[in-house]
TrEMBL record:
Name of the featured protein: Iron transporter
GO CC, one annotated term: plasma membrane
Entry annotated with the keyword Transmembrane: yes
Organism: Trinickia soli
Source organism, top-level taxon: Bacteria
InterPro entries, per database record: NRAMP_fam (IPR001046)
GO molecular-function terms, A-Z: cadmium ion transmembrane transporter activity; manganese ion transmembrane transporter activity; symporter activity
Keywords per UniProt: Membrane, Symport, Transmembrane, Transmembrane helix, Transport
UniProt membrane topology term: Multi-pass membrane protein
Principal place of residence: membrane
Pfam families tied to this protein: Nramp (PF01566)
GO biological process, one term: iron ion transmembrane transport
Subcellular location field: Membrane
Signal peptide limits: none
Length: 428
């Protein structure tokens, strides 16, 4: 490791295997199921039972489409989303989007850290705030000091934490026939509470920080591997890389949505069935499970909160840093030593520290999380519109403009999110 780079020179065995090819898409999908997302899915299942399971079937193809678009932009152009926005669109639009992203991410970091500290307290007792600070500083140290290739492997291993929510189903009895029917033919309510929860599920599943992270990680992967160039400069590398992106994203988003499905299912079959319908946080969901589903389910749920939080924190802080760096042309890479990219790492530190500080104020974390979701929802629509325009712009994509099927699905995803945002303002 040189003084200017954190790239790990260790070579993975079996690098040509399909598992080794999983990276940005897998990590992005798994990071979507962060503690605040777990709280949203838990509320959906506890309040409306099996009648919220259908949302996951709809979000999956839409999420795949928009994340593939973001990854393609990064890999084809060799630049992240903020850099492409700066190069091709008005500055006022870029600044507005980045400020909203930074605000929403910081609030989300605060909410996730609070949930993680509370989860440790539930499992072992002790000072919740001390755990919150320790986990925040631990995550920050990994991002700043660990070599990039090794750090990516750590994030890949952390995705296994999500299996905790699959494992919970073995601790409870599931009426699978009813589940199958309600997944396909739910009892849809047109009440304000039901619509708001649907919007919350969409908002926590399709979020701007995921777009910025996956595009930037494709750029990181491009620089980390010898002989790789932006596809506009080396079109011959296109078929293999676009195929990898497609597989990586399909698997990563499947992982994300499968876990969301099982969280809704678990809370539906336990909490909803026992009339526990008001869940405000992921740690509250874990606590409520204990007397109903037993110690095993409680432990799995609690451990999952901690693991997914450690996975989500770097994605939230990192995506904010990539956005700011792209906006102001700062050096930016997790493969660089901190002294070589001071402002980039400074944003990572600032977002994490401010998130920690919010946990020591009188701000209600539940209300803060709600407004974070509102900001994410509002911000996602113009960003998705701009992404779809970028993906069809030959100045950015060269010969790799988005093919018609992906373009159709991407615009459909954008339209659904726009409808969700409109519904949110109608029903909140």
């Amino acid at each position: 490791m040189t003084s200017s780079s954190k790239v790990d020179t260790e070579v993975d065995s079996g690098a040509d295997s399909w598992v080794a090819k999983l990276g940005p898409g897998l990590i992005t999908g798994a990071a979507d199921d962060d503690p605040s997302g777990i709280a949203t899915y838990s509320q959906a299942g506890s309040q409306f039972g099996f009648n919220m399971l259908w949302t996951v079937l709809l979000t999956y193809p839409l999420m795949v489409a928009i994340q593939v678009v973001s990854a393609r932009i990064g890999r084809v152009s060799g630049h992240g989303l903020a850099s492409n926005l700066r190069r091709h669109y008005p500055r006022w639009l870029l600044y507005g989007v980045v400020v909203l992203l930074l605000t929403a991410n910081t609030i989300n970091i605060a909410a996730d850290l609070t949930a993680m500290g509370a989860a440790v307290n539930l499992l072992v007792g002790g000072p919740t705030r001390a755990y919150t600070v320790a986990l925040g500083l631990f995550s920050l140290a990994l991002q700043v000091f660990m070599p990039y290739r090794r750090y990516v492997r750590v994030l890949k291993w952390l995705t296994l934490a999500l299996f905790a929510y699959v494992g919970v189903i073995f601790a409870v009895r599931i009426p699978w026939a009813e589940v199958a029917v309600r997944t396909i033919l739910p009892h849809v309510s047109w009440s304000g509470g039901y619509i708001t929860t649907v919007v919350a599920v969409f908002g926590t599943t399709i979020s701007p920080y995921l777009f910025f992270w996956q595009a930037s990680q494709e750029v990181e992967e491009l620089h980390a591997k010898k002989g790789q160039q932006a596809l506009t400069q080396m079109p011959s590398q296109g078929p293999a890389n676009l195929s990898r992106i497609r597989m990586d994203t399909i698997i990563g988003m499947a992982f994300s949505n499968l876990v969301a499905y099982f969280i809704i299912l678990t809370t539906a079959v336990t909490l909803h069935a026992h009339h526990v319908t008001d869940i405000q946080s992921s740690s509250q969901a874990a606590s409520a499970l204990k007397p109903i589903a037993g110690q095993f389910a409680f432990l799995l749920f609690g451990l999952g909160i901690i693991g997914t939080g450690l996975l989500a924190l770097p994605v939230l802080a990192g995506s904010a840093a990539y956005a700011m760096a792209g906006t102001f042309r700062w050096k930016n890479s997790l493969a660089l030593e901190p002294q070589m990219a001071k402002r980039f790492y400074g944003i990572i530190v600032l977002a994490t520290v401010v998130g920690l500080a919010l946990d020591f104020t009188s701000i209600d974390p539940i209300k803060a999380l709600f407004w974070s979701a509102v900001i994410n929802g509002v911000t996602s629509v113009p960003i998705m519109v701009l992404m779809m325009l970028m993906a069809s712009n030959r100045k950015i994509m060269g010969t790799f403009v988005t093919p018609a099927p992906l373009r159709l699905l991407g615009w459909l995803s954008t339209g659904v999110m726009a409808a969700a945002v409109i519904a949110m303002f109608v029903f909140i």
